[in-house]
Amino acid sequence: KSERDAVAWLQRVLSAESADALHVTALWGVECDRTIQVDERIQIVPIENLAESPQKKWLMTPAFRIPPESLGDLLVMTNFSNGHPKTAFTLRYAQAPVIAKGEPALPSQLESLSQLSKDVRLSMTLCCETAPTEALSWEEFIDPDMQRLSMGAMFRTTHEDIQPSARHGSSLLNAETAAGVILKFVSIKDPDIRKLRISVERLNQALRRSNVGDMAVDAVTALDSIMEKEVSSYTMALRVSQLLHEEPDRREEAFAYSRAMLRIRNERIHNGITLESMDILGKDTKSKDIVGRAIGMLREGIRRIVIAQSIPNWTRFDLTGGSRWN
């Protein structure tokens, strides 16, 4: 490139009032086998499909992977030391101004992007078996000329306080339902979205736990946060069963697993113990299996609420046996 070309480039980028950009978030704990176009703003991609950038190069470098040398290493490794993230999502937006020229960044735009990013990640929890967890996020321009304005490899991370161990692994995102669930979740309004954010965050956190009792504590909090007020464990379990099923036998099973998880939670909170097993419909069942099954039911129940785009009117729900929500 000649000096003339360099001056022309500089004039072009300095005169630009806005430029299309991407907010990129790389995730642990979830994989996708193809690009999923959620809408004109949101796209989920295998991380290999991201545009080349210093951030992607750092994530993909072999030095980033630390192979375990023993079984003990594997047990204490977190996802941060268990290979590179497999999936990312991007949020497209217009960056204006392109160069701040001493002016602070627009706080409303930054806050909006941050909240949308969190909502997308949370809603993905409802479409896989594990906990999508942020690895890194960064911004980049779509136009390569504009991207040359960037200096270094700036990125950020939320530093989740509960990190899943490597044995938690990752699961495949359900591509058939993901786009619809994400779109429904990000369009829910207050006050329901405030409750659902807490609920899905606690569900995500439960999936990152290792202790079964602590998993139950977070999962029950996820359930409790979408109730209109404090209710008995019997009522919560009954509502889960009615939310999921019409058939009496399947309702009985869902009720049994949900109420057992509530008891495991209560024993953990009030007595400081984690029950090893409980009787479920006449069968001795390990607490790990109970909580895992109940969390799966809870995930499906929350997903149905998200698809309906409103939390049930619980009084009407109870009076109709779950056949009518609102």
Question: What would you say this structure looks like, in words?
Answer:
The protein has 326 residues and is of the alpha+beta class. The protein contains 12 helices and 9 strands. Strands 3-4-5-1-6 form a 5-stranded antiparallel β-sheet. Strands 2-7 form a two-stranded parallel sheet. It has a two-stranded antiparallel ribbon with strand order 8-9. Helix 6 crosses helix 11. 35% of the residues are buried.
Keyword list:
single chain, 14% strand, 326 residues, alpha+beta, 9 strands, 12 helices, five-stranded antiparallel sheet, elongated
Brief rundown of the structure:
This protein has helices at residues 3-15, 54-60, 71-76, 107-124, 144-147, 175-186, 192-208, 212-224, 233-244, 248-271, 287-308, 314-319; strands spanning 19-28, 30-31, 36-37, 42-46, 87-95, 133-141, 171-172, 277-280, 283-286. By secondary structure, it is of the alpha+beta class. The protein has a 5-stranded antiparallel beta sheet with strand order 3-4-5-1-6.
Write the layout of secondary structure elements.
Blueprint: H1 3-15, E1 19-28, E2 30-31, E3 36-37, E4 42-46, H2 54-60, H3 71-76, E5 87-95, H4 107-124, E6 133-141, H5 144-147, E7 171-172, H6 175-186, H7 192-208, H8 212-224, H9 233-244, H10 248-271, E8 277-280, E9 283-286, H11 287-308, H12 314-319
Parallel strand pairs: 2-7
Antiparallel strand pairs: 1-5, 1-6, 3-4, 4-5, 8-9
First-to-last CA distance: 65 Å
In N-to-C order, the SSE pattern is HEEEEHHEHEHEHHHHHEEHH
Number of strands: 9
User: Main sheet, how many strands, which sense, barrel?
Assistant: 5 strands, antiparallel
- Computed CA radius of gyration, to the nearest angstrom: 23 Å
The tally of helices reads: 12
Determine the structural class based on helices, strands and strand pairing: alpha+beta
* Oligomer state of the chains in this structure: single chain
Q: Averaging pLDDT over every residue, what do you get?
A: 85
Q: What spatial form do the alpha-carbon principal axes imply?
A: elongated
Strand order of the largest sheet: 3-4-5-1-6
Runs in which pLDDT lies below 50 for 5 or more consecutive residues are 72-76
Helical proportion, percent range: 40-55%
User: Which percent band covers the strand fraction?
Assistant: 5-15%
